[in-house]
Amino acid sequence: MLHLIRTEWLKIKPYRAFWVMVGLAVAIIPAGNYIAAEITSQIVSKTKELIAVAPYDFPLIWQSIANVNSYMTALFAIPMIILVTNEFTYKTHRQNIIDGWERREFVLAKLFWWLALSLLAFLTTVITALVLGLAYGAHPLSFENFEYLFYYLLQVLLSLGIATLIAVLVRRSGLAIVLYLCYIMIVEQVLVLVLKRNFGEIGGLLPLQTGDELIPFPVIGKLMNNADHYDDGVYLLVLCLYIGLMIFLVFRRMLKTDY
After folding, report:
1. Residue 200 CB neighbours (<10 A)
2. Tens-place pLDDT, residues 158-211
3. In sequence order, what DSSP letters do the residues of 47-114 get, joined into one string?
4. d(CA 37, CA 70)
5. CA 74 to CA 181: how far, in whole Å?
6. Which of 113, 93, 213 is nearest to 163 (CA)?
C-alpha cells in the first residue's frame, strides 16, 4: 500500500492546479464559518432572551459548523473528480497497469485520496470550530455534540464517493463536474422535495439528504416539525450503506471496464 501512496504523491506533487483548489477549499471553510459566526453573534446579542446559547458557542458550535460545512462538500469533491479523470485523460491508468499494477491497486490508490481529502475537510472543520468557539463563545470548551462532526465526515465521504463514481463513469473532467453539481444542487434537491411532499420521511433517505437530516442547524432544527423524521440511527445506517455502495460500484466499474 505504501508504494501506491508514494506513486500517487509523485503524480500529484507538481500539480499546482490541484493544490490551489485544495488550498481554496481549506481557506473557504474558516472564512465561510467566520461570516456565519459574525452574523449569528449579532442576532444572538439582540435576542438573548430567546436564544440561551449562541450557535457558534460551545457546545452547539460542533453542530452549527457541521451544518454549514455540509453545503461545501463540493469544494473537495471537484479536486477528487479532476484527480480521477486526469488518469484517463493522460492515459496514466494504462501506464500503471503496464508497469505491473493490478486494477484493484489502481482503485485503492484513488481511495487513498478519497479518504485523505475527507480527513482534510474533517480536520479543517475541527480546527475552525475550536478557533471560532474560543473567539465567539461565552462558555468553556466542551466536546458535547462532537458526534455531529463525525456525521459531517461521513457525508463528505459519501459526496466524494458520488464524485468518484461519476468520474470513473464519464472519464472527462468537465462533464463529470457538471453532472456532479447538477446532481447535488438540482436533481437530489428536487427528488427530496417531491418525495417528502408525497411520501413523507422517505424523502430524507436519498444519499446526501441522509447527512442533512443528521445535522440540522441547532436553532432552526428545534423549530422544525419532526413528525416526518426517522430516528437518527436509521439515517446513520443508510448513510454508511451508501458509502459502501459507492466503493463497491467504483471497484466494479474499474475491474470490469476496458482500459
Report:
1. 13
2. 999 999 999 999 999 999 999 999 999 999 999 999 998 998 889 899 999 999
3. -TTT-SS-TTSTTTHHHHHHHHHGGGTHHHHHHHHHHHHHHHHTTHHHHHHHTT--HHHHHHHHHHHH
4. 16
5. 8
6. 113
Q: In which element (H, E) is residue 120 found?
A: helix 103-136
Q: Is the dihedral of CA 97, 99, 104, 106 positive or negative?
A: negative
Cα Rg of the chain (Å, integer): 20
Give dist(CA 56, CA 132) in Å, integer.
7
pLDDT band at 256 (very low <50, low <70, confident <90, very high): confident
How far apart are the C-alpha atoms of 89 and 129, rounded to whole Å?
Answer: 38
Please compute the mean of the pLDDT values over residues 140-168 and round it to a whole number: 95
Q: Cα-flanking dihedrals φ and ψ of residue 57, to 5°? A: -115, 155
Give the pLDDT confidence score for residue 69 in this predicted structure: 94
* Nearest alpha-carbon partner for 242 in 212, 216, 201: 212
Q: What dihedral angle (degrees, nearest 10) is formed by the CA atoms of 38, 225, 243, 151?
A: 40
Nearest to 31 by CA among 116, 131, 119, 100: 131
